[in-house]
Write a structure and sequence with these properties.
Strand order of the largest sheet of chain B: 1-2-3
Order of helices and strands of chain B: EEEHHHHHEEHHHHHHHEEEHHHH
Shape of chain B: globular
Strand order of the largest sheet of chain A: 1-2
Distance between the termini of chain A: 69 Å
CATH class of chain B: Mainly Alpha
Structural class of chain A: mainly alpha
Helix content of chain A: 55-70%
Number of helices of chain A: 17
Shape of chain A: globular
Largest sheet of chain B: 3 strands, antiparallel
Number of strands of chain B: 8
Helix content of chain B: 40-55%
Order of helices and strands of chain A: HEEHHHHHHHHHHHHHHEEHHEE
Oligomer: heterodimer
Largest interface: A-B, 31 and 33 residues
Distance between the termini of chain B: 29 Å
Strand content of chain B: 5-15%
């Protein structure tokens, strides 16, 4: 009989948690606390404001929100936080990791199997960490005749370009790393880098299969960039702006997908091709050319390329949301922060504590992030679905779709938006009524 | 073969040409199996293609000369462990003829049921790999999962999941379990419902049609000239099925029809085995109705049976086409020679003709549609 995965039992899960807590307490009390005491015996404690800074005092400082919250709030206003945590790399990497997990489970459900199950207690949720550890611990093998500097730098460039892409995405009002006036042009510039990196890496590997894969990727990306760009011209005509934040604000009443469904479809198909997703995963067609331009990558170099491609997937989905689905706009569902907490402080039994620095996030920002995330995840869902349904397309049919059909549809979309503009229905800034 | 090539592309280019790139597809390649295809490409067009089998040669024919007629059974099924009943079928028929054994009626029906189940198991495995060749991962998982149903049936019948060693000269090794008929009928009904769904996910898929229709077209006279058999021949419009043309055991009592498609392209070649599976379900149901309810299933042989100076050739319709065995006896307990003639190798011969002038992207679609099993071709 076939192996059937055991069912998840809450009792086992709670038991394993209790086991872990038990061992942590035992190890801390037996080893950790004596070790700290021995260390403290030899350390001269500093004196601040005439007070000896004992570990106990340091702990009270750390736990005092009136001291820590302002520091956290200042940190959150810095560019470093925006780039590294939110809305930059950390947020994107979290969504990308979630995407990988959802993709594997979703595909497994489509194909009547279980998917990742054993790693982590709940439905294999730690599988990604396991895979990452495996990739890090693997040896990196480079072909003997490869052009080593370029070969080494290609995965890093790929991740870097994908991360630069993320910098353009406005997540919620004011929360964008680079709020450029030419945001859409910058996006076109960044997606122009991906074919170059692909060709560089495949050429420098000095191997046949990566070379064919790289050339295929070049053809595919170049021929689909044109409909991709043309499909967005309608939005630029109607909004009169290239700034992504302004494009989002112009969709306050209605998203652009209502008026430009053809443009949205063209953008979505071209996006699938740019992302090398099935049915357009020709550069990685394993039955023809092994793994395409990824053939010679090993260990964490492969991991970096995968990370980059999932970051790219998140960024394209986010761009679709920003351009066609109204970005952060949505009904207000987060309640307003109570003003008394700022003015009067919090009543904690007999004492009242005033905490400066609250609230950390405005409700508008939380609401915007919520709607943005919901929309992005649903777009990612639609990007993942074709993988379970379609086989791979052939390169000549792919180019035929790109050059003959999508470009024509993109022009139809431009004419629709132009006629809307000249009929006086819509115009720069939204509905002209 | 493609009749009209784009300008500037010539097949059969001689000499050292910088434009031509040689690709070794296999033997360590996700898309080749245990064999190698040496493909020469000019841009995206294949100018020549040289299939290079032989990586899983095991010398089955020579091994058969050192074992007696009974101990030959387990190793002769090794070339196609997924289709082990069908590869033992001609051997058992041949040995029965040269030893002069009459097989009981019930054993004949059990053999037909087992061989049709095994044909479905093989075809599902083949179809799963065809799915992964075309990048359709769902089509890889579904047949691989549905195969378990039939494997469970065969396990009930013979005790083993894949290498059954179920057919013996003189009948089958053991009788069916008591509840087998009910279980088999239930599983087969469900299985038929399942494989009908493949039509919507695979055979009606527009991308699949665009990739396989009119690629690797094997014309009717070419199919005869190159000696192809089985599903490849029937996809080219020639109604040739050994179960109908040379009925063995009880196939002439059963009610079924052969599937023939006219177009001869990869799509037709990939669809014929699927239609055959639906037909197999009918055959199994029919055989379960007509099977004698009781009786012996095996004629006991002497410990070391000997035949005279006789020779025989028997062939059956396996999952990959006609599968024949030529057995020569010289009066000793061991056969003097066992020559296995398989459909896989005959179909592989078509590959260089079909791929010439095709695009590289068509290579997997054409290659695996030939219903070729590398291990069987090497023996």
């Amino acid at each position: 009989m076939s192996t059937i995965a055991p069912k998840f039992r809450l009792g086992y899960f709670i038991k394993s948690l209790l086991d872990n807590i038990f061992w942590i307490i035992i190890l801390l009390t037996l080893i950790g606390i004596p070790a700290i005491q021995v260390a403290l015996f030899f350390i001269d404690l500093p004196v601040i404001d005439g007070e000896l800074l004992t570990p106990f005092l340091a702990l009270t400082w750390l736990a005092d929100p009136s001291r820590t919250l302002p520091i956290v709030k200042t940190l959150m206003q810095t560019d470093f936080f925006k780039i590294a945590v939110f809305p930059g790399f950390g947020f994107a990497a979290l969504l990308a990791a979630g995407t990988i997990f959802i993709e594997r489970k979703l595909l497994a459900k489509l194909q009547l199997r279980v998917g990742p199950f054993y790693c982590g207690k709940i439905e294999g949720i730690l599988q990604l960490m396991g895979d990452g550890l495996k990739l890090i611990s693997k040896e990196i093998i480079i072909p003997a005749k490869a052009d080593k500097p370029i070969f080494w730098v290609a995965p890093l460039l790929f991740v870097g370009t994908a991360a630069a892409f993320i910098a353009l995405i406005p997540v919620s009002p004011g929360w964008v790393i680079a709020d450029l006036d030419v945001g859409l042009l910058a996006f076109f510039a960044i997606i122009g880098f991906f074919p170059i990196i692909t060709v560089l890496s495949s050429w420098s590997a000095n191997s046949k299969f990566p070379f064919i894969g790289g050339i295929r990727a070049l053809h595919q990306m170049v021929s689909f960039e044109i409909p991709l760009i043309l499909s967005l011209l309608g939005i630029v005509i109607l909004t009169g702006s290239l700034n992504l934040s302004e494009i989002v604000e112009s969709q306050y009443n209605f998203p652009w997908i209502i008026f430009m469904p053809i443009g949205a479809i063209v953008f979505f198909i071209a996006m699938l091709a740019e992302l090398e997703r099935i049915p357009f995963d020709l550069p990685e067609a394993e039955s023809e050319i092994v793994a395409g331009w990824l053939t010679e990558f090993s260990g964490m170099m492969y991991g970096l390329v995968q990370l980059g491609s999932y970051l790219k997937l998140y960024a394209f989905a986010a761009l679709f949301v920003v351009l066609f689905l109204g970005g952060w706009n949505g009904p207000m569902i987060i309640p307003q922060f109570p003003q008394e907490i700022i003015t009067d402080g919090i009543e904690l039994g007999p004492i009242s504590v005033t905490i400066p620095g609250l609230p950390l996030f405005t409700p508008e920002m939380l609401n915007g992030t919520f709607w943005f995330t919901i929309k992005t995840v649903s777009v990612i869902f639609f990007i993942l679905i074709p993988r379970g349904v379609f086989p791979r397309i052939r390169i000549d049919l792919l180019l035929h779709i790109g050059w003959y059909k999508l470009i024509g549809l993109a022009f139809v979309n431009i004419f629709i938006s132009l006629s809307l503009l000249y009929a006086g229905v819509l115009g720069p800034g939204g509905m002209m009524l | 073969m493609i009749s009209k090539l784009p300008p500037g592309i010539k097949v059969e280019q001689k000499g050292d040409n910088d434009k031509i790139m040689t690709l070794n597809v296999g033997p360590q390649h996700p898309g080749s199996g245990h064999m190698r295809i040496i493909v020469k490409i000019d841009g995206d067009y294949i100018v020549s293609c040289d299939p290079d089998p032989g990586y899983v040669h095991r010398g089955e024919e020579k091994m058969a000369e050192y074992r007696n007629y009974i101990t030959n059974i387990p190793h002769l099924e090794r070339p196609v462990i997924h289709d082990s009943c069908n590869i033992l079928y001609p051997y058992c028929l041949g040995v029965e003829e040269i030893l002069g054994i009459e097989v009981p009626e019930r054993a004949k029906y059990v053999r037909v049921i087992a061989s049709e189940l095994n044909r479905c198991v093989y075809t599902l495995y083949w179809l799963a790999i065809y799915g992964i060749f075309l990048g359709h991962s769902t089509m890889f998982m579904w047949p691989a999962g549905d195969r378990e149903l039939l494997i469970d049936l065969l396990e009930k019948l013979s005790g083993a999941r894949v290498t059954h060693a179920y057919f013996v000269p003189g009948g089958v090794r053991n009788d069916m379990p008591s509840n087998f008929e009910d279980v088999c009928l239930r599983q087969i009904n469900y299985f038929e419902k399942r494989i009908k769904q493949y039509d919507s996910i695979f055979y009606s898929n527009p991308i699949l049609k665009s990739r396989t229709i009119n690629t690797g077209v094997l014309r009717q006279n070419d199919a005869i000239r190159l000696g192809s058999t089985g599903s490849v021949l029937r996809a080219s419009g020639i109604d040739f099925d050994l179960r109908k043309k040379e009925p063995y055991d009880v196939y002439d009592n059963l009610d079924f029809q052969t599937n023939v498609l006219k177009s001869g392209d990869s799509y037709a070649r990939s669809k014929i085995p699927w239609l055959d599976m639906l037909e197999s379900c009918k055959i199994i149901r029919n055989a379960l109705e007509k099977i004698p309810k009781s009786g012996s299933v095996r004629v006991k042989l002497k410990p070391n049976p000997k035949a005279g100076n006789v020779e025989t050739y028997k062939r059956v319709e396996s999952g990959r086409g006609s599968l024949g065995m030529y057995i020569i006896s010289n009066g000793k307990p061991e056969p003097y020679r066992v020559k296995i003639s398989v459909g896989s190798f005959r179909n592989l011969i078509c590959l260089p003709y079909l791929l010439k002038g095709e695009k590289l992207g068509n290579m997997p679609a054409v290659y695996w549609s030939l219903n070729y099993w590398p291990v069987e071709a090497d023996r």
